[in-house]
Amino acid sequence: MQAATVVRVALVGGGMFGGDVVLRSIEDLERCGIAPYLGRVGLDLRARELAAARFRLVAIGTRTPQTARRLCAAYAAKVPDSSPEPFWGEEPWKEILDRHDVQILYIATPDHLHFEPAAHALRSGAHVMVEKPLTLRLAEAREILELARARGLIAGVDMHKRYDPCHRFLFEELVPRIGTPLYGRAVLEEPLEVSTRTFLWAERSNPFSYVGVHWLDLFGHYLAATPVSVHAVGQKELLVNWDREGGGRKIDTFDAMQVSVDYEGGLRVYYVTSWINPPEFEAPVNQEMEIAGTRGKIEFDQQDRGLRATISGLGTRTYNPHFTADVRRLGGCAHPAYDGYGKDSIVAITARALEVIQGLATRDELAGTYPDVESSLPTVSVIEAAEEVARRNWRRQRGGRGTPVTARIRADGYDIVDPLAG
Question: Structure pTM?
Answer without folding.
Answer: 0.96
